[in-house]
Amino acid sequence: MLRFRSLGSGSTGNATVVEAVSDGRTSRLLIDCGFALRHLDARLARAGLAAGDIDAIFVTHEHGDHIGCAHALSRRDRIPVWMSEGTWLATGGRDFEGRLKLARDGADIHVGDLVVQPFTVPHDAREPLQLRCTDGARCLGVLTDLGHATPHVLAQLTRLDALLLEFNHDSDMLAASAYPPFLKLRVGGNYGHLSNAAAAAIAHAVHHDGLRHVLAAHLSEQNNRPDIVRRMLADALGAHEDEMLAANAADGSPWLDL
User: Fold this and answer.
1) What is the pLDDT of residues 75-85, one digit of tens each?
2) Which of 117, 153, 214, 228 has an alpha carbon 20 to 30 Å from 106's alpha carbon atom?
């Protein structure tokens, strides 16, 4: 069985747990840990977990709302940390006391019964990676923090059972916001974040009968609204708006089983 849960998602922090259960064994991956250590502990506790239950951490890129307490968590609980070489260098090449593992596009990572398949995305970071996670029977795609979907990105999202997908901003709200011009250009640019329309187009492109869950994530608190996201996602999937889920910054999401 494969399941996942957002522990919180937004500009203030992001973290997702992916869990595979097979023959009585449980394998858990924490994707990003963009919170202070005590806050992450509290979020794990609300999910029925402790830091010691995590087998590995994967950091998608160096921005603070994703890397957060990765170093402190790894050091305290002796958890291996995966990230790209570019991400590691962008953080100053910090010492992880032998627990650092370097990831790269197309190279599978094994975390117990989980197989993690990183892939590159266009984002304004040193070497950002997003993920496809599988237990051999079910497959989850994790796609946040990118400005647009390249053919390479879309190729990683075929035949998914679930997708955690960035719906960062409403383009009209961003244009009318108090953000300075340079920040509007950065967020809305090809190496920034996905607009609702761009994310909905991705959801529509990868939709198939076996796609059980699409969890909208990384919503901007200033430039988006959950009701807009749910409506656009429902339209993209040909579903009812009330069935659509959006992770929030405070509570993330419930556990979603595949």
Assistant:
1) 999 999 999 99
2) 214
